[in-house]
Write a structure and sequence with these properties.
InterPro entries: DnaA_C, Trp_repressor/repl_initiator
Protein name: DnaA protein helix-turn-helix
Number of domains: 1
Distance between the termini: 42 Å
CATH class: Mainly Alpha
GO molecular function: ATP binding; sequence-specific DNA binding
Shape: globular
Order of helices and strands: HHHHHH
């Protein structure tokens, strides 16, 4: 079926989700460890993880189910995160931050691959 979502390659998607988490951590000061806990997160860590989920959705072009899968969440959690981030884009400071983060992620992914010799 055209457009049907299948579970992605686990390692590659987790690596990309990790990139989004690291970039959000570097720009917000919220450590990745705080965003990836398995218990209920406090406000700043939760919103930072939502930013990383939203960044994955827009920068990687992932559907919400794939975002949820890569972050160990379900689709509805990814949808809440993306809805929150879209609403927050009305704030110029957050919109500018997300623009920069999207550009950063795209530049990293579009960079030529570098073969590392042993």
């Amino acid at each position: 079926m055209e457009g049907t979502y299948w579970a992605p390659e686990f390692g590659r998607d987790r690596m990309r989700a990790g990139l989004a988490l690291q970039i959000v951590a570097a720009s917000t000061g919220v450590p990745v460890e705080s965003m990836t806990r398995t218990v209920r997160l406090e406000g700043r860590a939760c919103r930072a993880r939502w930013l990383a989920m939203y960044l994955s959705h827009v920068a990687f072009g992932w559907p919400l189910e794939r975002v949820g899968h890569a972050f160990g969440m379900n689709r509805s959690t990814a949808a809440v995160a993306c809805r929150w981030a879209e609403d927050e884009r009305d704030r110029p400071v957050l919109d500018a931050l997300l623009e920069r983060l999207e550009r950063c992620v795209r530049e990293v992914l579009e960079a030529p691959a570098c073969e590392l010799g042993l």
